[in-house]
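Input/output pair, single chain:
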Amino acid sequence: MNRFFLFLTLVLSSRQLNAQELNAQVIVNSDLVNQTNQQIFKTLERSLNEFINTQVWTNQEFLSQEKITCSFVFNLSGYSNDQFEATLQVQSQRPVFNTNYDSPILNFLDKDIVFSYQEFQPLFYNESSFESNLVSLISFYAYVILGLDADSFSHNGGDVYFEAARQTVNLAQNTSRKGWKPSDGVRNRFWLIDALRSNTFREYRQALHTYHREGLDQMTTDSEAGKIALMDAIQQLEPLYQRRPNAFLLQLFFDAKVEEIVNLFQEGPKVDFKKTEAVLKKIAPFFGARWKQIKA
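Output:
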């Protein structure tokens, strides 16, 4: 049974330890921190890599080649008395059928990272309680990554994962750490999962599926048809722009996809790109210079 059908029957269960789903790399960059003893940062990095890659997030078995490639880069800006301040860059990729290519799905910068950590402190995930800000951060983004990956294979396939991410946000409402509450900003964890679960922004998830399943996955057998599906996916985002011109998820989509879109339409069979180009310039003007490079 392939991943497409497995997603349709997926049920979360932290108690059924079948396999690990993520192939994650965690980097803790301490270049900006004035600290002579770097061992604490190396220990933190090692502990996070072990936690993410050994934690079982679902009851679904992933083959080795099906694990989701992702990365978590903590750029530390402060450290004192077991208190860490940082930004966190989260990225994930999705394999394209019949190729060795991984397509970027998520490229998100979280600027509200503050957490406590003591060297060799064990990291435990509990789906029904808030254990620590660090564990909640990792768990939240793990479920977002799983949800986006699932959406790219089946319509609304990520529902169960986004619900788990929402539960993580709910459990964090009593913490003083930033990023979990609606009052903490306009582009934080609260608003990210709120948008992903909202019918108001449904076109984002529809476009994600069309782009990958009907577009990229068809490129090796019919690259022209694949390109046409890619253009359809981009155009599906226009109604979302018309309702919410500054939608969080529009920025999220193009932060991940801009380089790929430019590269895909610069190569291969020619297609009528004029309508799609106009849509891109309209809904993603922040990448206007990149769209000009496309000579489809």
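The CA atoms of residues 130 and 174 lie 9 Å apart. The longest strand covers residues 102-116.
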